[in-house]
Request: fold
Amino acid sequence: MAPAAPVVEVRGLTREYQLGAERVRALRGVSLSVYAGEMVAIMGTSGSGKSTLMNVLGCLDRPTAGEYLLGGVAVGDLDDDALADIRGERLGFVFQGFNLLPRTTAVENVALPMLYDRKGRFADPTARAVAALQRVGLGERLNHQPNELSGGQQQRVAIARAIVTEPRLLLADEPTGNLDSRTTVEIMALFQALNDDGVTLMIVTHEDEVAAFCKRAVTLKDGQIVRDVPVEQRRAASGLDGGAS
Reply:
């Protein structure tokens, strides 16, 4: 049996920006494959290109050169309407700032992506939103507004919103950046549980503690991948295990 095609496949991806007289190369020939069921940390310092890569993978930005296939679909060939459909059908997003609508209940926030569905895939958005909130442990907070929820609970709402359409890929950009250490552990454990259920995740982070929850760590520097290893191998090479038994 032939191996399954990657969920994400990028080949020679380049992204350049013109800043005044200066040409900035944010990505320099990045090639990467991510398969169904993986949980990948995208790491690097500020300016490494990790957020630019995430924007391209999320169809929020177009590469200057190179090829990007999402589930076998050549994204670079799509117009803006088709890209919007891709974002709505195949991708889920979680951001550092939660991005919830104020004065709107958790259920209404989670149902929002389905209101923009142009293909009528969701017969009962409210029921799906309730189920997604129950899945992330917020079944008792359905009608709470963001200002009535803790930071961790708000991020759980954002995660429910990201998974309610059952995307092929969940992209998270510094999802614990606004959370304390205990809540960070809770949110990353939730991501692990979703991954165990078959959700494919790519998580941008600069924190080793967050990457430790993933299965694979891809490190960028100056717009290029400089390391792509299983997390256990990265921890051992960096001495992060501390010799504990």
Observations:
- The longest strand covers residues 22-34.
- The chain has a mean pLDDT of 91.
- The two ends are 40 Å apart (CA to CA).
- The chain has one domain: 8-238.
